[in-house]
Write a structure and sequence with these properties.
The protein is an all-alpha fold and 46 residues long. Helices cover 70% and strands 0% of the residues.
Amino acid sequence: MDMKALPPIPIPFAKRWREFRLRDLPILVFAAALSSTVALWRHEIS
């Protein structure tokens, strides 16, 4: 069997969107909540 460069298998947009929602979105929401909490905390202290 000759192993030449095969064309990449296209990934459907729905699958990419689902992976983003499950893997990356929780991290972004956590980071936004954390930065909002820090901003509110600093505003109340100063």
